[in-house]
Each structure stands twice: as structure tokens, then as C-alpha cells.
């Protein structure tokens, strides 16, 4: 049983939960941390120790730090394209926005995602 926002959740309720990568959690917690800092007029007002430790953990074990790369990876993971051509058609920003990826890099991402699928 877990307590989240004053509500108790039991194990069966987590069966419908969506999994997040550490890099996604890091982005979420970073935004929340910034919001908490902006809302606080008192500089001595700090976030909880659990929040701070959680943020440190996901930052330490996050392999991806670029928000665009995280979004692209999540889209690829959700849609499971089989070829580089299919991936570039689905996620146009892989080739067009910011740091575009070479076909070899995209192929490596797809291979990594396919390897993960094999272990399911």
C-alpha cells in the first residue's frame, strides 16, 4: 500500500500504471523542483529529503539528458518501427530538429529497443 497525495493505493491499482524511464522522471522532477523554488518566498524552505534523493537518483542513472531525445526515444518505443525509414517517417524530428541523427544511430536505437522487446 502506498500513500500518494493523501490517497492510499494498493498493489492491484498499480497494474494499470505506465512505466517511465529515469530520464522522463528526471525531467518531471526537475520541473517540479523549479516550480517549488519559484513558489517559495523563503529561501530556507527546502524540498523534502525523499524528493531530493529521488531527483539525485534519477539524474545519476539517467542515460539520456536531452529532452528532445527522450521524447523521440519514447515515441519510437511506443510505436515500434522496424526500419530506419519507418522511424524517420513516424518521428520527423529525428532528421530535422536540432541534432539530427545519422541512419546508423537510428538503427542502433531500433536494435536496442528490439533487444528489450525480446526479453518481454
TrEMBL record:
RNA polymerase Rpb4/RPC9 core domain: residues covered: 12-120
SUPFAM superfamilies, A to Z: HRDC-like
One Gene Ontology MF term: nucleotide binding
Keywords for this protein: Nucleus
Domain of life from the UniProt record: Eukaryota
Gene3D superfamilies to which the protein is assigned, alphabetical: 1.20.1250.40
InterPro entries the record matches: HRDC-like_sf (IPR010997), RNA_pol_Rpb4/RPC9_core (IPR006590), Rpb4-like (IPR045222), Rpb4/RPC9 (IPR005574), Rpb4/RPC9_sf (IPR038324)
GO biological process: DNA-templated transcription initiation
UniProt record similarity statement: Belongs to the eukaryotic RPB4 RNA polymerase subunit family.
Name assigned to this protein: RNA polymerase Rpb4/RPC9 core domain-containing protein
Organism: Kingdonia uniflora
Amino acid at each position: 500500500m502506498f500513500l500518494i497525495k493523501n490517497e492510499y493505493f494498493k498493489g492491484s491499482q498499480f497494474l494499470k500504471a505506465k512505466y517511465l524511464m529515469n530520464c522522463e522522471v528526471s525531467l518531471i522532477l526537475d520541473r517540479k523542483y523549479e516550480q517549488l523554488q519559484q513558489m517559495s518566498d523563503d529561501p530556507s524552505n527546502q524540498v523534502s529529503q525523499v524528493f531530493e534523493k529521488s531527483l539525485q537518483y534519477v539524474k545519476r542513472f539517467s542515460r539520456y539528458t536531452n529532452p528532445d531525445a527522450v521524447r523521440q526515444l519514447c515515441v519510437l518505443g511506443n510505436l515500434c518501427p522496424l526500419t530506419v525509414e519507418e522511424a524517420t517517417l513516424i518521428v520527423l524530428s529525428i532528421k530535422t530538429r536540432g541534432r539530427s541523427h545519422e541512419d546508423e544511430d537510428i538503427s542502433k536505437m531500433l536494435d536496442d529497443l528490439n533487444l528489450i522487446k525480446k526479453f518481454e
